Amino acid sequence: MKVMNMKKESRSKNWRICIYGKPGIGKTSTIKQLKGKTFVFDLDNSSKVLAGEDIDVGMLDRTKPIEEMNDFIKNDLPEITKKYKNLVIDNISSLERDWFVERGRNTKSGINNELQDYSAWTNYFTRLISAIYQSDMNILVTAWDRKREITSETGQSFTQFVPDIRDNVINTFMGLTDIVARMIINPKTEERGFILEGNNAIYAKNRLDDRTACKAEELFNFEGDK
């Protein structure tokens, strides 16, 4: 067992953040605010908005996502960890869809998924995110949003926005992540920002500092950082 003395440790060292929101709201553009050398693994071909930035981008071949992602974890990730301060996985919701499409090609119908695919995804995603999160660098994951039905301790039912990944992996993913932030546009000012504290309507969390919300350009300005 590795033992650490936490007195001089920083909460924001090697952070893990997930930002989510509807497509086109500006999640990928938020990458421009990262400090330090950044590598983006583009899973949904949305990196064009980064044109002109000093950011390196690797493109996923979406016709063979499982093979490509496995190669990334085995061969590319160790080298990226040595060269970059930040890694962005953009967008995990798109990867989930492409993964099921590829699995469906191997079924009898060549289209429909079989029951074992859903349990296989649970194991695959858990191993995937664990391998990525073990890297010695900051990691940002983006996702679309979706709604899910939840029941409170008092028995009331609510519709809650969450990152758009399947329920059988979402709790594990969000539990491992330091900040889960939903991106919104202020209807009065039209400014983009993030909700960092959750409620029954929105899942969000922040264990890096005490902020409950922030402007989009301030997400990575953690309280207490020098």
Quick structural gist:
The protein is α/β, with parallel strands linked by helices.
Structure write-up:
The protein is α/β, with parallel strands linked by helices and 226 residues long. It contains 4 helices and 11 strands. The chain has helices spanning 65-83, 92-105, 115-133, 167-176; strands at 16-20, 38-42, 56-59, 86-90, 138-143, 145-151, 157-163, 179-185, 192-195, 205-206, 213-215. The strands form 2 sheets. Strands 1, 2, 3, 4, 5, 8, 9, 10 and 11 form a 9-stranded mixed sheet that branches. A hairpin with a 5-residue loop joins strand 6 and strand 7 (157-163). Helix 3 (115-133) packs parallel to helix 4. The longest helix has 19 residues, at 65-83. The protein is globular and about 55 Å long. The relative contact order is 0.19.
Key terms for this structure?
226 residues, alpha/beta, 9-stranded mixed β-sheet, two-stranded antiparallel ribbon, 4 helices
Give, in order, the helices and strands: EEEHEHHEEEHEEEE
Helix content: 25-40%
Radius of gyration: 18 Å
Give the biggest sheet.
Answer: 9 strands, mixed
How would the global form be characterised? globular
Q: Please tally the helical runs, counting DSSP H or I stretches of 4 or more residues.
A: 4
Low-confidence stretches: none
Q: What is the strand tally?
A: 11
